[in-house]
Amino acid sequence: MEWMMGLGLGWVTGVPGLTRAAQLQALGNGVVPAQAADALRLLLGRTGAGGVR
Fold first, then answer.
1. Is residue 44 within 8 Å of residue 52, measured between CB atoms?
2. What are 26-38's pLDDT values in tens digits?
3. Contact 42, 53 (CB under 8 A)
4. Quick check: 34 and 5 in contact, CB under 8 A?
5. Largest Cα–Cα distance in the chain?
6. Dist CA 45 CA 40 (whole Å)
7. Model's pTM, two decimal places?
8. DSSP string, 2-49
9. Please, what is the average pLDDT of the chain?
């Protein structure tokens, strides 16, 4: 699932002590970084605080 979200290999699955269920929960509750960046750009553009690229 990490690669589909654009995260590096082991970003969540490489954390020692996390069960598979905990890994899936963490990934399922996460935000895809590329989508978050686009949302931030859109919101900042609307406020005139644009400087994010």
1. yes
2. 888 888 888 888 9
3. no
4. no
5. 44
6. 8
7. 0.58
8. HHHHTPPTTTTTTSTT--HHHHHHHHHTS--HHHHHHHHHHHHHHHT-
9. 85
